[in-house]
C-alpha cells in the first residue's frame, strides 16, 4: 500500500505491529493510525491529542462523544486539569448526540453523562456547553437549532468519535445515503442491544435519538476516533480499508483530510496484512 510509514518503539518488546504511528495517505486522504497496547493506553494517547488541541488553541470548539469508550479519555483530561496542565476556560463544546425523550437530569441522558464524567470536573463555562435537547419533542426545531449553534460557533475544531459494531458514528446508522445535518434517527436493534447494558432492560432504551449528521461530522477540521476490543476488529478493517459506503457510515472518514485513529491491538488485529 503506497504511502505507508511505520515508526516502531525503540527497543520495544512485542511484535512489530506494536507501533507508535502509522500514516496512510492517498489522494485527498490522510489517516493517522496510533496503536495502543490496551484500553488504558488508548485512552491516554487519545487524551494527549485532545490536550494538544486545547494547549495550541485555547478557544477550541470541541466535539465530544459519549458511551463507554471515551470514559478513560475524560478521566485523563480531568487529571491533567487538576494538576494545572489543562485549562478549558476558553473552550466550547458540542456533543454528537442525545436520546430523544430523555430530560437532561435523567441518569442515562448524555447531558448527565457528560457532566458526570467531564464537565463538572473541569473549568469549561456552562454557557459554552451545548448538546441536543432530548426533551424537545419537536425534532425539526431542535435539529435546526443545533445546526445553527454549531455554525454560529464557527464549526468544530476537533471531533471525538467512537464507532459501533455496525460502523455507526454518532447515531448515524447504516443507510442507503450519508446523512447531512443534525437529525432524528430510529435506533437499530443492534444499537439498542449494545446500549441496553446502561439501562435496566432493553425495553428502557429509547428508540430514537438526535445526532449530528455525517456531513456535520465531516465538516470538523480534525477528527479523532477511538476503538477498543477484538469485537471491533472486523468493522475496523471494513471501515478504514474497505469501500466507502453509507452501509458502513464510518467509512466516509477515509475522505477526511485529518483523521487520527487510536485503537488498541485487539481492535487492529485483523488489519495486520494491510498495515
Task: For the structure shown, list the relevant keywords.
Rossmann fold; globular; 3-stranded antiparallel β-sheet; 9-stranded mixed β-sheet; 275 residues; 27% helix; alpha/beta
Describe what you observe in this structure.
This protein is α/β, with parallel strands linked by helices and 275 residues long. The protein has one domain (36-264): 3-Layer(aba) Sandwich (Rossmann fold), CATH 3.40.50. The protein is built from seven helices and twelve strands. It has helices at residues 39-56, 71-82, 110-117, 139-153, 189-195, 214-218, 233-241; strands at 5-8, 19-26, 29-36, 61-64, 92-95, 97-99, 129-130, 158-161, 183-186, 208-211, 222-227, 259-264. It has a nine-stranded mixed sheet, with helices on both faces. It has a three-stranded antiparallel sheet with strand order 6-10-9, with helices on one face. α1 (39-56) packs across α2 (71-82). The longest helix is centred in the first third of the chain and has 18 residues, at 39-56.
Amino acid at each position: 500500500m503506497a504511502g505507508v510509514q511505520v515508526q516502531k518503539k525503540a527497543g520495544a518488546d512485542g511484535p512489530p505491529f506494536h507501533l507508535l504511528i502509522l500514516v496512510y495517505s492517498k489522494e485527498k486522504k490522510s489517516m493517522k493510525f496510533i496503536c495502543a497496547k490496551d484500553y488504558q493506553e488508548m485512552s491516554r494517547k487519545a487524551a494527549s491529542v485532545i490536550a494538544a488541541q486545547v494547549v495550541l488553541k485555547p478557544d477550541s470548539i470541541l466535539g465530544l462523544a459519549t458511551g463507554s469508550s471515551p470514559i478513560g479519555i475524560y478521566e485523563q483530561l480531568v487529571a491533567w486539569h487538576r494538576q494545572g496542565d489543562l485549562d478549558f476556560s476558553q473552550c466550547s463544546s458540542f456533543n454528537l448526540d442525545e436520546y430523544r425523550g430523555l430530560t437532561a437530569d435523567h441518569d442515562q441522558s448524555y447531558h448527565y453523562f457528560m457532566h458526570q464524567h467531564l464537565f463538572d470536573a473541569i473549568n469549561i463555562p456552562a454557557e459554552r456547553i451545548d448538546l441536543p435537547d432530548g426533551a424537545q419533542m419537536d425534532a425539526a426545531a431542535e435539529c435546526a437549532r443545533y445546526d445553527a449553534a454549531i455554525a454560529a460557533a464557527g464549526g468544530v475544531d476537533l471531533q471525538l468519535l467512537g464507532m459501533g459494531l455496525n460502523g455507526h458514528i454518532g447515531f448515524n446508522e447504516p443507510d442507503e445515503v450519508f446523512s447531512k445535518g443534525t437529525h432524528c434517527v430510529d435506533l437499530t436493534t443492534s444499537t439498542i442491544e449494545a446500549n441496553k447494558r446502561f439501562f435496566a432492560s432493553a425495553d428502557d432504551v429509547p428508540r430514537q435519538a438526535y445526532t449530528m449528521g455525517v456531513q456535520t461530522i465531516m465538516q470538523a477540521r480534525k477528527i479523532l476516533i477511538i476503538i477498543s476490543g477484538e469485537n471491533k476488529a472486523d468493522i475496523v478493517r471494513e471501515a478504514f480499508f474497505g469501500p466507502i459506503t453509507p452501509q458502513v457510515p464510518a467509512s466516509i472518514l477515509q475522505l477526511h483530510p485529518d483523521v487520527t485513529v487510536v485503537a488498541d491491538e485487539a481492535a487492529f488485529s485483523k488489519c495486520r496484512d494491510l498495515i
